[in-house]
Amino acid sequence: MIDLPLALYVHMPWCVRKCPYCDFNSHQLKSGQPDTSYIDALIRDFDLEAPRVRGRRIDSVFFGGGTPSLFSPADFARLIDALKQRIDFADGAEITLEANPGTIERGKFQGYAEAGINRVSLGAQSFDANALKVLGRIHSADDTYRAVEELVAAKFGNFNLDLMYALPQQSLEQALNDVQIACSLGASHISYYQLTLEPGTVFHSRPPALPDEDAAWQIQLAGQKMLADRGYAQYEVSAYAKEGAQCRHNLNYWQFGDYLGIGAGAHGKVSVKTPEKILRTVKPKQPREYQAEIGRAALSAGESSFIAAADLPFEFMLNALRLNDGFSSDCYQVRTGLLLQNLDEKLARAEERGLLEPMDSGWRPTELGRRFLNDLQASFLA
C-alpha cells in the first residue's frame, strides 16, 4: 500500500448559466435544480474507484463545479455519509464546497455545515457591478455580502473568496478596490488570479478589451502588496492565506499527492507503485454519458493510463513549482520514486538563468521564476 496523502475531488457539473470566460466542464441547468440521481452515480463511481485505494484514508474532499451549491444540504449529507461508510476520513479532514453567491438561500450554509462541510470557496470574482455583468455572473456584490453574512452566522471560520483581476477595461484603482473589499470581509483565504482567455470559451472567440501585459503586471503586484499588508501570505501563484489557513486539498495537488476524481469529467491520480505505476484517470465529460457509463461499468468508468517514468519530472514540476516555497528533495523522491540528483543538470541551468534557487533541503522558484513560470516548468520536459 502506498503511504501518501489521499484527497477526493467530486465534480458537480451544472450551473445556472455558463460564464463567457469559463473553460471548466460545466453545463447550463435546464430545470430548477439538478437531478438527485447524480448523487447515486457519484456513490457508484466511488465504489468502482475504491479498490485502488483500499486501506487508505481521505485527508481532504473538494466539491467543485459547475456550481455545487445548486445541490441541497440533504444531497451532500447523503453523499458524505455514504462516503464515510466506505472509507476512513482523517480526523479534521478538510471538506470544501464551491458556492456561487447567487445560489445561496437563507440558512443554506447552516445546512451544509450540518452535512459535514467545513470549508467554503465563494466565487465573488469582483465587487464592481459592471465587471460582474461583463463576466456574465448571475450574482451582485450584495449577494456576496449576504453570502458572507450567512457563512459567518453558520460559524464557517474557514472560507475562501475567489477574486479575478485584469478584467475588461479594469483600472488599477478598481482592481485594488476589489482586493480591499475582499480583505474587509474576513475571509481566511483569498484566491487572486488573472482573467485569461481560454480556448473554447466565448471570450476567446470574441475577446473583450483587457488591460495590456504591463498594466496587468502592475495590478498583480499592487494587489499582492495589499494582500500581504493585510496578513494574507502568498504561498502559491494565485493563493493567499491567513496563518494556518492554506487550502490543504490544493496543497496536495501542488505537492504531487494522490487524489481520486469522481463525477462527470473528473480527473484523478493514484500511485499504485512508484515510479512505474502512477495512474491518471478521467471520467466522461457529458453528465448524461457519465451517468450511463457509471451505471453499466463493472470496473472503474472512464479512461486511465500510467504516467511514463520519463514524464514524471515534468509532471511533478508542473505542480510543485507553483509553490512559493518550492519542494524538498524528499518530497520529490517519495512522490515520483525517482532521485532528484538525476535532474542536477536541469536544476543548475534553471539556477543560472535566475529562475530557481537552492534551499537546504530542495529548490524554490525565484521572483523571476514565478513571473516566467511556464518557461521554468517547460525546462523539465523529457
CATH-defined fold name of the largest domain = TIM Barrel
Q: Which term fits the overall shape?
A: globular
Rg (C-alpha, Å): 21 Å
Distance between the termini: 28 Å
* Overall average residue pLDDT: 94
- The CATH superfamily name of the largest domain is Aldolase class I
Helicity, in percent? 25-40%
Indicate the proportion of strand residues.
Answer: 15-25%
Q: Count of helices?
A: 15
β-strand number? 17
Question: Structural class per helix/strand content?
Answer: alpha/beta
Low-confidence stretches: none
Description:
The protein is globular and about 55 Å long. The protein has helices spanning 37-49, 73-86, 108-115, 129-134, 141-153, 172-184, 202-205, 213-229, 248-254, 287-296, 312-320, 329-336, 344-352, 367-371, 373-378; strands at residues 6-12, 14-15, 27-28, 57-65, 88-99, 119-125, 159-165, 189-194, 233-236, 239-241, 258-262, 267-273, 277-282, 303-306, 327-328, 356-358, 362-365. The strands form four sheets. It has a nine-stranded mixed beta sheet, with helices on both faces. It has a three-stranded antiparallel beta sheet with strand order 12-13-14, with no helix packed on it. Helix 6 packs parallel to helix 8. It has 382 residues and is of the alpha/beta class. It contains 15 helices and 17 strands. Strand 4 (57-65), helix 2 (73-86) and strand 5 form a beta-alpha-beta unit. The chain folds into two domains: 6-252, Alpha-Beta Barrel (TIM Barrel); 311-378, Winged helix-like DNA-binding domain superfamily/Winged helix DNA-binding domain (Arc Repressor Mutant, subunit A, Orthogonal Bundle), CATH 1.10.10. It is 37% helix and 24% strand.
